[in-house]
């Protein structure tokens, strides 16, 4: 696929009314925290007010709606880039003779949505969702960063395969997600879903919004852990 930058935007992945409702709830929340980067709170690197939905049952409906929207985008992404599954995992399945054979990109393309969904579920898992509020003229994540890095004994950050951002509002200037090496800026549009790889090849930053606050939901698609993929003894 000559010229591919592996940055995909899926318009209207979540409807505008649902986005506006999430923004309203976030504005009213009394449990927002200063935005963190991998090493902690550094306002000079990232300035935002965040809400992690992990472990918050009162936000389960929002997490569910966002995960459903991301799931649709993920299937479209895997259809366009089936190597996202077959290249790192060397997947196998029984053939007509019962013997295991390795899947190719063409095999992935031939699957219907149900079959591709089962395969994605077996190989991948959703990350914890973070809602972020960037105030006009001051909020942003100007530090060039990627999402794949070694931190923590459980190595969860090394399991991140794809990043995603769902833009919850628009009507402001700037505030783009900017990718360094691809020289590409993605302008926020309410309901649009951005999916891209997590590694240094897709180093990016969140530019400061002007003339209005910016709201996003963001997380990752992670590989299943090795004991799930290969068994506890391997």
Automatic annotation (TrEMBL):
<dbReference type="InterPro" id="IPR044862">
    <property type="entry name" value="Pro_4_hyd_alph_FE2OG_OXY"/>
</dbReference>
<feature type="domain" description="Prolyl 4-hydroxylase alpha subunit Fe(2+) 2OG dioxygenase">
    <location>
        <begin position="132"/>
        <end position="221"/>
    </location>
</feature>
<protein>
    <submittedName>
        <fullName>2OG-Fe(II) oxygenase</fullName>
    </submittedName>
</protein>
<dbReference type="Pfam" id="PF13640">
    <property type="entry name" value="2OG-FeII_Oxy_3"/>
</dbReference>
């Amino acid at each position: 696929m000559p010229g591919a930058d592996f940055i995909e935007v899926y318009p209207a992945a979540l409807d505008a009314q649902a986005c506006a409702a999430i923004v309203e709830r976030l504005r009213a929340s009394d449990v927002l925290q200063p935005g963190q980067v991998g090493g902690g709170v550094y306002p000079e690197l990232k300035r935002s007010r965040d809400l992690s939905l992990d472990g918050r049952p009162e936000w389960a409906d929002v997490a569910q709606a966002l995960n459903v929207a991301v799931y649709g985008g993920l299937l479209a992404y895997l259809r366009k880039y089936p190597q996202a599954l077959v290249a790192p995992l060397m997947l196998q399945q029984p053939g007509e003779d019962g013997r295991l054979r390795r899947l190719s990109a063409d095999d992935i393309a031939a699957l219907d949505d149900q079959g591709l969904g089962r395969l994605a579920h077996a190989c991948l898992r959703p990350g914890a969702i973070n809602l972020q509020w960037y105030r006009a003229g001051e909020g942003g994540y100007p530090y060039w960063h990627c999402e794949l890095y070694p931190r923590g004994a459980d190595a969860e950050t090394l399991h991140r395969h794809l990043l995603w951002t769902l833009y919850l509002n628009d009507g402001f200037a700037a505030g783009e997600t900017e990718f360094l090496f691809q020289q590409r800026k993605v302008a926020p549009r309410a309901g649009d879903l951005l999916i891209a790889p997590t590694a240094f090849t897709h180093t990016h930053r969140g530019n400061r919004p002007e003339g209005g606050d910016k709201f996003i939901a963001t997380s990752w698609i992670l590989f299943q852990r090795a004991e799930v993929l290969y068994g506890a003894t391997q």
